[in-house]
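Intended use. Records like the one below are meant for learning the mapping from a protein sequence to its folded structure. Do not use them to infer anything beyond what is encoded.
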Amino acid sequence: MYFWNIEKLKKTLQKGPLTEAEAFKYLFVTTIAWCMGYIQFGEYNIFDVYFSLILVVLEILGLIYAYKCNGGAKGKNFLQIYISIAWVVSIRWIVLVMIPCLAIYITALVIYSTVPEVTTLQDIIFSSLLLVSYFWLLGKHIKDLAK
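Structure written out for the chain above:
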């Protein structure tokens, strides 16, 4: 895996595509870097810290799960499959899960007219369940292709 030497990377890619294991490494470190956005800055409570850590762990475990659903190092075209399937699953997820959740949230706001201004344990549990179910669905579709 190359971190700085773009010329060596280009020479490697000119010889042929990366192996599944090599391509997974790039996606893995990119996912970790992306997850750094979960880290809380400024004022936060202990649940914010737990929330950030749990989301990072679930993202990484979800990626590993999807990779294994594709056959791991023996699988084929993981990056293409992962990115394209994740895109469609995400769009469907927004419409079928996130929009109804937002409607429930807005309804709760209207009824109770207050919202906690800090992260709560319920936020962590709810978000974790949503993320786990997302990766389960993503893995299911990837497994279907890997057969």
